[in-house]
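Run log, item B.
One chain of 397 residues. Sequence copied directly from the ordering sheet:
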Amino acid sequence: MPPLGGGNPADSPFVHTRERRRADRRVGALVIGAAAAVSTVLAACGGGDTRRSGSSSPVPGSTEATAETTAPATAPGAAGPDGTAPSAESSSTSSSTTLVPPAEPPYAVGKASLNFEDSTRGTEANGSAPATPTRLIPSTIYYPAIGAPGGPPRSNATMVRGRPFAMLVFVHGTSMTGDRYEALLYEFAKSGFLVVAPNLPITKADAPGGPNPNGYKQQPADISFVITSMLTMNGTAGHVLEGRIDPERIGVFGQSTGGDDALALTHECCRDSRVKAVAALAGSQWLRKGVPNFPIGGYFAGPPIPLLLIHGDRDEITPYVDSTAAFKQAPSPKFRVTMLGADHLSPSGAEGHNPWFEVSVKVLRDFFAAYVIGYAPAVDQLKVDGDVPGVAKIEAG
């Protein structure tokens, strides 16, 4: 099987083009009966085998582990998708594999690189960098891994097996890359999500010609392309990621420009029906008149998409009033968590752990448990976790 990432993105065996866009239509509905125990999301994933070329390091799906680790399909005592409680005797068995007791969060966290190329859309000229005919999108995935929890992410660690995971796409801010937010993304992989963090061509820190926020117009389509690419791998027989993603449970979140990109998925220009919920950290400036953006009237068109806004009231880059406008315009269900005294980056953890970051982790986990996983009691927990005297307050609508 092909290795994970490495080398020139254009040479990677994981490069995918939009010609394969229809492939994910063939993916069966892999609806897992996952329910969240409010503060932790219980999920699992399927598997295949692969090994990094020239390396003995285990990668997601490697058989180097001595036994599979299977996560439960539901939280203890929770109802499955048919409304019935799971049986204690309903765990899967295999004639060729000895199963260890089901794993539950927190998980160890694995990390691997993927490279995507969209051959149907070009990259615009940027500063001294000329236009190119395709869009290269190197990405990092974080995922639940076999092993003792704790410690930094483990490169190409073996992924926990069982049923597919809900997937979150995280979008970085201008002059940033996904790895700057590793503390945040780690928390979601630890809780039972597969997280993919693309580095987008024009706004990333190392963009040819320099990072440029004016690259935003292409980025909602980049998000959809990454989702398609992940689901294509998920639906490809024998692929390392075959069966690892639940295509019915996908969410998107981002910070700053990346938060604006997430919000753009609620716009009539950029909707993606596969996305069940979006969250933005310090990212709502596109709904402010006078800022280059998509037409303001096109936001929140069509069926409501659950929305969570997280914003510091002392944000020095994206004014706090921007999220006020976005929250007012958005339909229900919607939530805004105001981080009292927080600046632009602190709630995201990009500058280290702090009380605002701790609240962000909790409310985002609650939000995605409720609206991506489908665990309704997480809504009430979200309202509790978003109300911390002196740190955060929450509004719901």
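Observations after the first pass:
- The two ends are 48 Å apart (CA to CA).
- Strands lie at 108-118, 135-145, 154-155, 165-171, 194-198, 245-255, 277-281, 307-312, 334-339, 392-396.
Flagged for discussion on Thursday.
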